[in-house]
Amino acid sequence: MRKIKIKNFGPIKEGLVEGDGFLEVKKVTVFTGNQATGKSTVAKMVSTMAWIEKEWLRGGILIGDPDNNRRFVEDFCAYQGLKNYFLKDSEIHFVGDYAEIRYTDGNFNLRKIIVDEELYLVPKIMYVPAERNFLSVVEFPQRLEGLPWPLYTFLDEYRRSLNELTSFLELPINNLHLEVEGMTKLPFIRGYDYRLRLSESSSGLHSAVPLYLVSKNLAESIGKVGDRSRSPLSLEIEERMEKEFLTWVVDQKASAIPHSEMFKIIQSKYKSSYFFNIVEELEQNLFPKSQMSLLFSLLGLANVHPSNTLLLTTHSPYIVNYLTLAIKADEVAHLIKGIADAEERLQELDLIVPRSSAINADDAVIYEFDEEGRIRKLEAFHGIPSDRNQLNEYLGEANDLFDKLLAIEQLL
């Protein structure tokens, strides 16, 4: 399981105030909090560190390279717009599956975590930026300059996913469907009795359609024949892979691993084995019912592979509450399996939360960010996230303020 400790970096000051200061990145991880409290900062840093670990496995980053300090700040963090977040006492500590990465006192250090010789599980990492709705409004965004780099990367996946759409795609919103038109590959929304360009549709669809299309395309294609999560290996990557194998052949002495098995192990570093989906503001411009449907769809995609991971940033109390439903549904489903009329009860459960979207309580975690640069892990009771959280408290505060208005009115 990935984990990260981050202090004195941009809006993050003390960081996680509990335990050893490490945030665990579980199968489903949610960051909540006000604007400018560091939710996206940590999400972007998790994405950056996971990518660095992957690039190191593939030989693109070398341990001890004197240029690593510069590349970490000027290239890797700058890509996510984090270059100017560094302070003199910034501390970042990431522990992945195969590498431990630290940045302290202005120094970048990467250390291999010892693992047995086995097939590597390498993620397809997709960072879905909040600016994604821009892609649905502008018909040729690839021609524009000055957009955030993660948006260009997401645009590439979005265009590829549109090009590969050969039939209607049922959307998890209002019984709508997505289709693309002929040679232009322009996206259209089809309802019961209408059809219009995505650019002419609602703002909620501008945000939800690219997110859902790319997420579904990647999650369902990884590991299958004709895997769409990766393009054919570039010449550079092929050369890295062949060089690594030839180096092993030359250096091996008493290795009991057959050449064919070692080639499979090395090859596994260069293909995606699961999907790591990092989504900013899933709820963007969506009605609560649509938030629920989209969340359940993304949870279902996270369940396609045991290692698939979903990290969300959100301002919506509904997302936290709907995740609670998915966790409770998993608990209820396990209780149902032991009774006589199990299938009938499971069908009733599906009408509330699809079984494919249920999440084990141990696989989910919610972190709250505050304006002082601190992070707290939301308490859970018997595995269920507490309803005493920031988002619900603000809903309660609105009721309290209304009561105060009524009290003033009564004095008039």
Describe the protein's topology.
Blueprint: E1 2-9, E2 15-16, E3 23-25, E4 28-33, H1 39-57, H2 68-79, E5 86-95, E6 99-104, E7 107-112, E8 123-128, H3 134-137, H4 149-164, E9 169-170, E10 177-181, E11 186-190, E12 195-197, H5 203-221, H6 235-251, H7 259-267, E13 274-280, H8 288-302, E14 309-314, H9 317-336, H10 342-350, E15 364-369, E16 374-377, E17 380-381, E18 384-385, H11 390-411
Parallel strand pairs: 2-16, 4-14, 4-15, 8-13, 13-14
Antiparallel strand pairs: 1-3, 1-5, 5-6, 6-7, 9-10, 10-11, 11-12, 15-16, 17-18
In brief, what are we looking at here?
The protein is α/β, with parallel strands linked by helices. Helix content is 39%, strand content 22%.
Strand percentage: 15-25%
The coarse silhouette is: globular
Largest sheet: 7 strands, mixed
Spans with pLDDT under 50 lasting ≥5 residues?
225-231
Number of strands: 18
Taking strands numbered 1, 2, ... along the chain, how are they ordered across the largest sheet? 2-16-15-4-14-13-8
Q: Helix and strand string, N-terminal first?
A: EEEEHHEEEEHHEEEEHHHEHEHHEEEEH
Structural category is alpha/beta
Helical percentage: 25-40%
C-alpha Rg (nearest Å): 23 Å
General description of the model:
- The chain is of the alpha/beta class and 412 residues long.
- It contains 11 helices and 18 strands.
- It has helices at 39-57, 68-79, 134-137, 149-164, 203-221, 235-251, 259-267, 288-302, 317-336, 342-350, 390-411; strands at residues 2-9, 15-16, 23-25, 28-33, 86-95, 99-104, 107-112, 123-128, 169-170, 177-181, 186-190, 195-197, 274-280, 309-314, 364-369, 374-377, 380-381, 384-385.
- A 7-stranded mixed sheet has the order 2-16-15-4-14-13-8, sandwiched between helices.
- Residues 225-231 have low confidence and may be disordered.
